[in-house]
Amino acid sequence: MDRLNLAFTFLGRLLKEGHRIDAIIFSPVLKCLCSGDRMRDAALLLHKMPKLGAVPNGFSYSILINGLLSYGNTDLALQLFFKMVKIGGEWEPNMVTYTTIINGLCKESDLTKAFGLYQQMYSMGIIPDIVTYTSLINGLCKVGALDRAEKLLLTMVYEDLKPNVVTYSTLINGLCKHGEIERAMVLLHSMKSKGHEPNVVTYNILIDGMCKNAKIERAMELLHSMKSEGHEPNVVTYNSLIDGLCKHGDIEKAMVLLHTMKSEGHMPNVVTCNILIYGLCKNGEIERAMELLHSMKSEGHKPDVVTYNSLIDGLCKHGDIEKAMVLLHTMKSEGHEPDVVTYSILIDGLCKNAKIERAMELLHSMKSEGHEPDVVTYNSLIDGLCKHGDIEKAMVLLHTMKSEGQMPNVVTCNILIDGLCKNGEIERAMELLHRMKSEGHKPDVVTYSSLIDGLCKHGGIERAMILLHTMKSEGHEPNVVTYNILIDGLCKNAKIER
């Protein structure tokens, strides 16, 4: 019997034996229902509590509000909150209730309502605490209102509320996520000068921010600083640095760092391995990536679908389709279910290696296994068919994807328009352009460049010039490719002056 059933059994016994029960006894049951995604049952129990002799109090409502917010039901949570305000008395929302709802609104980026409640707190004589301010700072950072977030930090200090490491880390995180590394470093020094010691989370945020902003050297310096100050880096720290080095093309330094973290007793996890395997594959070092997979398995790390997708992608990009297919069977045999990304990678690889029939077979296989192809899957197949000269099959596939509820995007249209133009079917390509517009797809510079190229190559230079003016009038700026196509077309059509 689970905890919830035990609680209900206990409540039932108390009621049956005639014991007087109050709202406090119901609190654990409400919490269990909310954490178990049984919000409707929790609301029903709250409604029935008075009939059972237990009038809900403010804490009872706060439990339900917190549950609603955790499942994204902000509107219902607000309704319940304002009901508490209206009833008043012992149901009057307290500082915890206000902070809970403010935090939920900030997570939804509804800052107008969040700050409205913040002001209401003051009018009710409820002083916001550090958690309230940290929630508001987090909300401001999410929407990029960094100046307001910094001012709010100063407001805390002015009101004799000392920001803690969580508050500082929240603001540092916001600054880093918006590329404001220098401001984040100033804040780090400021918190230190005020006696607030940063923790490993603070350093991880900064190191990750530096790596994501291509400041690898400074991130490495910060790693040494945190160590010298007695802060032990963890696997998250090293993962950020290894990822930064891989993205920067420094695979060897990333591998050295892997050995460093191991020597310090920090065991890499599946994320570490995935970062390195992806980096090695991107660098064309497929054999080393495969070796790392075997090493990973021997050390007890279980690869996941991300690991296999990176390796399959690497093999496909280097033309090793057969090895990629073997790896698909390996992952299945090990109990790792391929996803739509896995199949899309393989289908794209098969198409790019002119194995269209096998790609189509794989499409049917993925469908039969219950995997729904997406627009990326279909784009790869349509592109492969067009490049293979099978325009009609590509058009049939377009209708198939639509019938399955997969709407084509601008990439799909561009592939087909380019294929039709290369096949000399300019009129059909122009028809597709008009249909594309009527269906709400906005053509881009690639669309127009393909059509202009097709017109130039088939003697429609005047129409190509008209299309150039059309694309400009629609706000699509021609690029160097567009102009080169036109210049080449004009020269070949003996219109040198133009």
UniProtKB/TrEMBL annotation:
PPR repeats lie at residues 22-56, 57-91, 94-128, 129-163, 164-198, 199-233, 234-268, 269-303, 304-338, 339-373, 374-408, 409-443, 444-478. The keyword Transit peptide applies. InterPro entries: PPR_rpt, TPR-like_helical_dom_sf. GO terms for molecular function: mRNA binding. PROSITE patterns: PPR. SUPFAM superfamilies: HCP-like. Pfam families: PPR_1 (PF12854), PPR_2 (PF13041). Gene3D superfamilies: Tetratricopeptide repeat domain. Keywords: Repeat, Transit peptide. Belongs to the PPR family. P subfamily. NCBIfam families: PPR. PANTHER family: PENTACOTRIPEPTIDE-REPEAT REGION OF PRORP DOMAIN-CONTAINING PROTEIN, RESPIRATORY COMPLEX I CHAPERONE (CIA84), PUTATIVE (AFU_ORTHOLOGUE AFUA_2G06020)-RELATED. This is Pentatricopeptide repeat (PPR) superfamily protein. It comes from Rhynchospora pubera. The lineage of its organism: Eukaryota, Viridiplantae, Streptophyta, Embryophyta, Tracheophyta.
